[in-house]
Structure formats: structure tokens, C-alpha cells
Amino acid sequence: MPWPAWVPLALAAALTGTALAAPAPARAATATGAVLDPAHGSVSWQSPAYPKGTGGGTESCPDAPADPDNKVCDRFDLTVSVPDGYWDDNPEGGVPLSVKWEKPSDDFDLYVYDDHGKQVASSAGTADPEATVIPRASGTYHVVVVPYDVHDSSFTGTAYLPATTDAGDLTSFSGGAGSYTVEAGRLTARADFLTGGQLRLQADPSGSLSDPAGTAIVRGQPAPERHTSSFDAGDYYGIRSPQAVLRVYKSPLRFGLYRPDNRTRIWQEDKPLRWSTGGMRQSLVRGADEQFFGGGEQNGSFSHRGQTMYVSNSFDWNEGGYNNSQPFYLSSAGYGVFRNTFAPGVYTFAQPVTTGQQERRLDAYYFLGDAKQVIGKYTALVGKPFMPPVYGLEPGDSDCYLHNANRGERHTLDALRIADGYTQHQMPLGWMLVNDGYGCGYENLEQTAKGLQDHHAQLGLWTQDGIDKLADQVKAGQRVAKLDVAWVGNGYKFALDACDAAKKGIEDNSDARGFVWLPVSWAGAQRCGVLWSGDQKLSWDYIRWQIPTYAGATLSGISYNTGDVGSIYRHDAKMYARDLQWKAFLPAVMTMDGWASDGTTGKPADQQPWLDGEPYTSINRTYLQLKERLLPYMYTLSAEAAKTGVGAVRPLWLEYPEDPGTLGDGAKYEFLSGPDFLVAPVYQDSDTRDGIYLPKGTWTDYRTGRTYQGPTTVDGYHAPLDTLPLFVREGAIVPMWPKGTTSWQTRDRHELDWDLYPAAHGTSRYTLYEDDGVTRDFAKGAAATQRVSMRDDGHGTTVSVGASRGDYAGKVDARGYRFTVHGGPAPARVLLDGRRLPASAWSFDPVTHVTTVTTPSLPLDRGFTVRLVDGR
Fold first, then answer.
1. In angstroms, rounded to a whole number, what is the distance separating the alpha carbons of residues 740 and 742?
2. Is there a cis peptide before residue 758, judged by omega within 30 degrees of 0?
3. Rounded to an integer, what distance in angstroms lies between the CA atom of residue 131 and that of residue 15?
4. From CA 446, how far away is CA 265, in angstroms rounded?
5. Nearest one of 285, 283, 306, 304 to 293, comparing CA atoms
């Protein structure tokens, strides 16, 4: 299981405080290198002292002959000589390598090249130590350490060859009332059964169990499940709980989890736990059709069977990267598992499945249930997705308006001219980062915040400094915080603490909900921030792989995951429009300005959605206004996510797990926005979209009204630049704000629209969620729900709208409704509470087969019924 170049192994050990086994005797290092082999298990070396840093990467280092004494950059040759197969089933998968120094303010960067000059590993962040691993190391490697930012400082380099040990035979078994302890020689393990079908399994070869992560990730321990019993089955001890049976095999010690019948396998170890100098792995039998998901944000994929999934601090923004990864996976066998750790991990879903973290301990929470239940239990443990302010679901805009090296000297108040542009072009804008860029400060903060509020937008700030300034900034009007390298670059607990602190900083100094963005995170970040997949470069390929990335993140309880519209560094009008179309169906979206150049001319190009002119301006406006109209639908999904852990953007498999077509190549590059919208983005320079997979049921083309019967694959779909392939599920009940809405603040609160797609059979139900949209009063119960049902009985369609239950600031007493009912013939008449509506109150479009019904203003404290009587 090879590790990629940027996994910081030794950093994990430093963060967790794990005690590592003593390495084998080291061969003394020469001035320029050393050998690691089975007889010489570790090496360390000391660098020269560097009076100052280079301020750059390896390009700032002279060639080795011009720097013979390593006075500018340090060079060290490491030769690894191991037998064939040494790395097979090795928990660490390669040679861990790290450099450490004494002065916290200094910074060294680490790079490793093979004998052909190819970079195979690196660690170039702000961590101390900088650490990585040389994957499946064999041969000679050239280590280059760059003193990036140092002041009369040196470092100590270390590397070791990890050796492995397996758990032996069971030597002790005891316990009861939900907690059981087992021993196998030096290894101590404990199984704690928790309510709701949960199990915590810990193991440590030191003989004692530790919890380095403490309460940093886990927000609250589930209650113990004390109704358990044990029995001796000969080859194993069994521990029975109401939801499962844990088998503890005796020779050698292995674990297996089974259904209450003790015959149906959930998971089963095929080998004992194996640990190495700095890692531990678990090996499981893979089911014949078992599928695997999760890992947080995994760029370019959502389904991992047959793949290796990495979980680590990463700055690889491209396909295959995982900068917002999480030590959690979900299995179609009916379970999920979270590793309670800040150590990096690797998960190989082959046969067998091998999973492990880079620490000599196991601390795993297992959750039983279907996928949505598992996500709910996992997020209950590490934190449910936060409830965003409604403006956070509107588009955001980011740029530097002070000391901008890319655009010349400007002033923070110049941001208001951009806000003017959104208003003039009737495009929604929820918030603006007015200082997004390295070295970009701000001025006139209160005036800027007030000016943005006049445009119904909130002030956001990119934060390169510490959190000490946040209180004053929030009091001046800041409501959005974007975190970057200085706050989250070290990842793990560092990133999670920053996310929690930024959210708390906004909420402690205002009545607003914290709204935080960050590009590097860890398990639990869903409780405090929007995760975005980094500084990608523009290409059609970039659009393609983002689709499964964001859908797949939902399977780890990440409800808000996104990328810059049109990327950050290059601009192309067509790709921007295509990217914006489908991202309108993500909850959170942001345009990044001030960094891009035109892909053709190379000249600076800002990326506001009206700058490319027609037809692009009109196309972008159409989808931004559609996003705005759909905010009641998306906001309700956010409220559901805050309760269930399941976000809006979903791979098809989540809603149709019994359909193998949802795991095919076609379904990989489409997603569901909530349960009702199927979005199939165009990710090529083409006006035709092939391979659109529609699961079972009737699907209506949102643009044309044409219906398709699934399961089916649609090829040759005509999708000119203004068309996003978009389909709606039969039975969908979709709340919308009125046409022309451009802000949650200026919407007509006295009208609510319902877009309806009656099913041929059965009753559809929907519950709308509403609150004031901005304060935290919803957490005290200041919210309202309104239930709607729809039924087609063969003689017509009946829509029943219940009373709005609950109250919140700004709630109106009455409102009118506009229903658009898709499909079916023209009704003979339309009834409101049994009374015939006048012909002027409804209409039928024979081309689209849509009936539009408008009601008078009706009190919210009483329900009503609309019936379309079939004209046939």
C-alpha cells in the first residue's frame, strides 16, 4: 500500500504523543548519507546552521557541486535495501522521514527525489517537524532540505525502517455490562458497546490504552449499552448486544462483528492486528459485492472498492488529492468506522481490506445501520453539520481591494463598486471577502460593511493572522471568515481548532451564525465550516472530477463542500458558465477574483458573472436567479443536515443503494441535489451530453418537460451552452421564492411558490423549514414548519398545505401561493377548499403540460387544499 509524497507520518506521531518502539541499531551516517537495511534500522543526521532562509523551494538551491558544504540547502543520500515483499502488509508502507528544529518561528521544507530525479515525497508546510514517507522505498534517494524561513538555525533529520509485529494468542478475557477487556501477550484491547448499535474498539501493544485526541474530535460519548452478555463458543468468545455479536477469536486474537443471529457477517478480521514502529493496521475480509465510501473529501471519486484511499494533511488540489480528508469510511455491508485520531491513515479496499493509521494503537468507533443511519451516528459523535445563515447559501465574491499586486493599488471601499455590479445586473450576492489575497489588508471596515449591507450582502474577511483580531472585526460588521494556511496549514488538530475558534469568534461577538470557509481540515470540520477543494487550475477535466468529489464528501457527513467557480488562476467564459451552472445546485458557492488571467490573451481577468458579456451574462444570471429561487428548498435541506448529518449533494447510490447502475461510470459524473433534482453537468467542450443515468421511476426534464422512465441511460442529450441537463424526480414537492428574487432580504415574503411533480401512484409529502435566517434563535426553537402532501388519484391531483407551525422573528401572518403542477391534461376546474377558483386564477400550458394556480393571500395558521379536477 504505497503512500503518496505528502503524507506527514512523523508529524502524526508528534501530534498524538504516541510512544514508538525503539528502532534497530543505526549505522552511523556519513556527512552525505547512510544506509537503511534489516540490520540497520534507523539513522539521524545534523544539518549545518543556516543564518537565513531562502524564501523559496528547491529552485532556490544551487546545484550540489556549487554548494559542496550544504551551506545554502542541506542534501543527504539515503539508500534503502530491503528484501522483496518487505512492504507488503506493512502498516507504514515505506520509510518515514522527518526533520525537526528548535526555534518555533523557523521553517524548513523537506523534499525527496529518486535516483532518476523524480520527486517521490515532500513536506513543505509550516509544521515542526516536517515529515513524510518514502513509499515502498527501495534504492537510493536524495533528500533535500530547504531552509525556507530560518534565523541561525539547524535541524535534525531522522529516518527509520519500520518492523512489524502481529498480535498473538488470546491470554485473557474479562468484563461485563457492556465493557470487555482482552489481552494477547503485550497487546491490550477493550470493546465498549454503546447505545444505538455502536461499538468502540481500542487496542495498544504498550499494554495500556490511551486517548491522545481527547475531546478535540469527539463531542460527546454515546451512553454505554449495558445489556450485553458473553459466551464461550470454543474457538472464540462471543459478546452479545441487542444489535450485534462481537466475536473474539482465541488463536490468534482476531475480531469479527456479526448480526444478532451470529451468522451474518458485518465485518471479520482475516488476520490479527499488526503493528510496526509507528503504525497499526486492521485486515478484513471483503464481501463479494461490498462497496466502500467516505474518507471525507477525496478529489475525483466517491466509491473506493478496489482503490487505496489516503487520509492526511494534504495540499494537492488536483484529482487524487485529499486536503479535507477524514479517517472514516462507510461500507455497504451495513456499517461505518471512524478512527479517533489525528494521525494520517491509509485504507486499501482490496481483498483483503487493510486499514490503518500511523500510530501504534487502534481506536475505532463502529456504527451499524444503512448509509444514512451511519452518517447520522458518525456526525452525532464528531459534530452535526452547522446550520448556515441564509446569506451563506447565496453566491459569494472574493478579491483583494488593498495592496493588490495583481490588479494595482486599490482601496477596500472599491469593493462596493463590485457590489453595485451585482445589483445592476440583477444577480444575487450574499457576501464578499474584500481582502482575499496574501499581503492584502483592509481599511474603512465599518463603512465597507455598511455599504455591503445596503446591497444586502455581508462582509467577509480572509484571515492570514491569528484570531485575536476577530472580535473587533466582527463588531465592525464581519460575518464571514475564510481561513488559510496560517490558520489551518498544519492540518489535523491545528485546523480543527481554528475552524471551531473562527465560528465561535463570530458568534461570541454578534448574534449571527458563524460562517467559516477553510481548505484544510479533519474529522469534525462539518460542525464549523464550509470546506473548499483548494486552488485548482481551470480545465474541463477540473470540472469533471469535482462532481464526484462533492457528492462523495456527503458520505462522510460533510454538508458544505465546494470549489471556486471557474477556478482561481485562469478564466474562460465558456468553462466559467458551464461550471457555474451545476454549482448553482451546491449549497455554497464562491467566485474568486483578483488572481486570474484570460486563458487566451494572458491578461488579467476578473471573474464576476457579468464581465464576459452576452450570451454569458444572461446565462449566468439565469442560473444564479434559479439558485436564489430554490433557497427555500436548499435551506430546508440544511436544516435536515443539521439534524441527520446528511447533506444536500448526494451520489445517486445514497438514494438508490440497490441499483448497481448508480456505481457505474455514467452515474459517477452526476449527482442529486437533495432527493429531487438529478444534475448531470456538461464537463466537455460540447453541446451534447452522453451517458446520463436515470434510476428507477419517472424523471422530468426540467427544461423541456419531457419524461423518462428509469432505469435508463440517456445519450445524445442536446445541451447548448445555456442548458444544464437537469431532471426532477416524480413526486417532488419543491418550495421556491417568486420569480425575479435576487436576495433573501428583498424577496416577497407574502408569496411562496410550489413546483410540483405528481407521481402516478401514492402520496408525496414534504415539510418546509423556515426561521429568521441569520440569528441563532433557531437553536432555541424559533422556527416554523409547514407540511405539504400531494396525491394523484386518477381523477385529479390534490395538494394539501398544512398550517405553519411555530414562530420566528419576521414571520408574516398570511401569504399567497403559486403552484406549478407538471404533467397531466388540462384540468376541467380548480378548487380551493372545495370552492371553484375563477379562470383568471389558473392557466394550462399545452406545450409544457404545466398547470399554474395562484391563490389569494391565506392565513398561515390554517391549512388549505387545492384540487385540480381532471378534464378527461
1. 6
2. no
3. 12
4. 61
5. 304
With beta carbons less than 8 A apart as the criterion, state whether 587 and 393 touch: yes
Tell me, rounded to whole angstroms, the distance of Cα 102 from its chain centroid: 35
The one-character DSSP state at 438 is T
Give the closest residue to 596 by CA, choosing from 404, 310, 807.
404
Q: What is the dihedral of CA 532, 536, 539, 543, to 10 degrees?
A: -20
Taking the CA atoms of 528, 533, 538 and 540 in sequence, report the sign of the dihedral they define: negative
What H or E segment, with its residue span, contains residue 454? helix 445-454
Give 548-607 as a DSSP string: HHHHHHGGGT---EE-EET-SSEE-HHHHHHHHHHHTTSS--EEE-SS-EETTT-SB---
Query: Judging by DSSP bridges, how do beta strands 236-240 and 229-232 pair with one another?
Result: antiparallel
Per-residue pLDDT tens digits for 71-130:
999 999 999 999 998 998 999 989 999 999 999 889 999 999 999 999 998 888 777 889
Q: Which long-range contacts (CB under 8 A, 24 or more apart) does 502-509 make?
A: 502/463, 502/467, 502/470, 502/528, 502/529, 503/386, 503/528, 503/529, 505/467, 505/470, 505/471, 505/474, 505/481, 506/470, 506/474, 506/478, 506/479, 506/481, 507/776, 508/471, 509/470, 509/471, 509/474, 509/475
2-56 tens-digit pLDDT: 333 333 333 333 333 333 334 444 444 555 899 999 999 999 999 999 999 999 9
* 435/465 Cα distance (integer angstroms): 12
pTM equals 0.94
Instruction: Give the CA distances from residue 341 to residues 345, 353, 357, in Å, rounded to whole numbers and listed in that order.
Output: 9, 20, 8
Cell of 319: 484529482
| 8 A C-beta contact, residue 28 and residue 35 | no
**DSSP single-letter state for residue 63:** P
* DSSP secondary structure code for residue 7 in this structure: -
Q: What percent of the chain has pLDDT over 70?
A: 96
Instruction: Return all residues near 788 (Cβ < 8 A) that are at least 6 apart.
Output: 733, 754, 765, 766, 767, 768, 799, 800, 801, 802
Separation CA 136–CA 385 (nearest Å): 38
Cα gap 577→618, rounded to integer Å: 10
The count of residues in the chain is 872
Spatial separation of the C-alpha atoms in residues 713 and 690, rounded to whole Å: 8
What's the CA gap between 57 and 146, in Å, rounded?
Answer: 7
Return the closest-CA partner of residue 630 out of 671, 670, 587, 590: 587
Residue 656 exposure: Cα atoms within 13 Å on the Cβ side: 23
Residue 773, classed as helix, strand or coil, is coil
Q: Name, in order, each residue with C-beta under 8 angstroms of 230's C-beta and a sequence gap of 6 or more.
A: 173, 175, 176, 180, 237, 238, 239, 240
